[in-house]
Design brief:
By secondary structure, the protein is mainly α. The chain has 12 helices and 6 strands. A hairpin with a 2-residue loop joins strand 3 and strand 4. Helix 2 crosses helix 11. The longest helix has 38 residues. The C terminus is likely disordered. It comes from Crotalus adamanteus (Eastern diamondback rattlesnake).
Length: 394
């Protein structure tokens, strides 16, 4: 028979005392509370189970609620910025160009771009109110709100493509442009861009619905119950019509412009031409992340980090609707003058109404072999803004 180990016996006695005390403690009235009857099991680093009452830890619902509150706060801030800056800035551009749309070609383009952005900026009021009250505007307003969002994207894209083709025609075929290009033709092109944008935005009107869940009413794109290919078709439509097609046209047009100018050894000194180029670059920088995140979402990307990435990509796309007036201002403002309302309006008018730019010819002996002296003189007078034609030709 082995002798008893005093140390081991002492440890066993202490363990029995701890177990008895813990049994009395957990059987007390405090732990009989209904809200604390379900324990939470946590695994620590050494895989030891620790049993704690629910009250000692934040639940997953509370964590999700915090994320949603933070996301809604971001939406409120961005919607407010887009509404205030977009409505005011584009409203000023519309006010300046509306008086000249029957006289100058560039005003037709700037007016329609500003109108598309203005409609989108104003439409942000509804989702801004819905952040606090839920969607209270009904099913029709829900559909129209989603429709305007994509109408702005498609219309801006198509208008920029039309403007790029207009500029390419002025540079590559100046004599034809002088004879045939007029206000009426440009208005027809702008109306065609609007009609095409309306048609391509119809699917986003049809599938936008009001949904109520957990006592919250939201305006969402609802594709549940639809055929599996519907979501893929809509996503492809948005990518091709809203980005790739117009991007291809714009790249081709500016490629033609660069080739023609290099062949003629000429340079552009038109502020309006430079502004259009900046608008095109800005549009693609703002909308490219949005289309990328939409493709990733279609591929099944799901995580909290990705949801915030997609959110910021959408906000960047929204900012495109209010950034154009500030581009006009910075490119037309003389910063040696005081920053007054008069000088701001003057800077905008300098860009929006600029029609007398010209293509400066550089002397070159090789240029004489391609064009006659008379054709060179005519083409040098043709502006890349309006091809020397600010009033309708008869």
């Amino acid at each position: 028979m082995q002798p008893n180990n005093p140390v081991k016996e002492d440890q066993q006695k202490r363990g029995n005392v701890i177990l008895a005390t813990s049994d009395r403690f957990f059987s007390s009235n405090f732990f009989r509370s209904p809200s604390l009857q379900r324990p939470v099991c946590i695994m620590n680093a050494s895989s030891t189970a620790l049993w704690l009452p629910n009250a000692s830890l934040p639940s997953s619902l509370e964590t999700s609620s915090d994320i949603n509150r933070f996301r809604n706060t971001l939406k409120i801030v961005f919607y407010t910025v887009v509404f205030l800056l977009g409505a005011f800035g584009n409203g000023v551009v519309i006010w300046i160009t509306a008086r000249q749309v029957s006289r100058t070609v560039s005003c037709v383009w700037f007016f329609n771009l500003a109108l598309a952005d203005f409609l989108f900026s104003v439409s942000r009021i509804a989702p801004l109110v819905a952040m606090k009250e839920g969607w209270v505007f009904g099913s029709f307003a829900c559909k129209v709100n989603g429709f305007i969002k994509y109408l702005n994207m498609f219309c801006s894209e198509f208008l920029l493509a039309a403007i790029s083709m207009d500029r390419a025609a002025c540079i590559a075929y100046p004599l034809w442009a002088r004879k045939h290009r007029n206000i009426r033709l440009v208005w027809l092109a702008a109306i065609g861009a609007w009609l095409t944008a309306i048609v391509t935005s119809i699917p986003f009107y049809l599938y936008r619905k009001v949904d109520t869940k957990n006592n919250q009413t939201k305006c969402l794109v609802m594709l549940k119950g639809e055929k599996p290919g519907v979501q893929v078709t809509i996503s492809i439509l948005r990518l091709i019509c809203g980005f790739l097609a117009s991007f291809t046209i714009i790249v081709i047009c500016y490629g033609i412009i660069l080739v023609v100018l290099r062949r003629r050894q000429t340079s552009l000194h038109s502020k309006s031409f430079k502004v259009i180029f900046v608008l095109v670059v800005t549009f693609f920088l703002c909308w490219l992340p949005y289309h990328i995140t939409q493709l990733l979402k279609l591929a099944g990307a799901e995580s909290t980090a990705f949801s915030f990435t997609a959110l910021f990509a959408a906000f960047l796309a929204y900012l495109n609707s209010c950034v154009n007036p500030f581009l006009y201002f910075f490119m037309g403002m003389d910063f040696h003058t005081r920053l007054t309302l008069y000088n701001i309006i003057r800077a905008l008018r300098r860009i929006l109404l600029e029609e007398n730019s010209s293509i400066n010819q550089k002397s070159s002996s090789s240029n004489k072999g391609s064009f006659s002296t008379n054709e060179q003189a005519k083409s040098s007078e043709i502006s890349p803004v309006n091809c020397g034609n600010s009033t309708p030709q008869t």
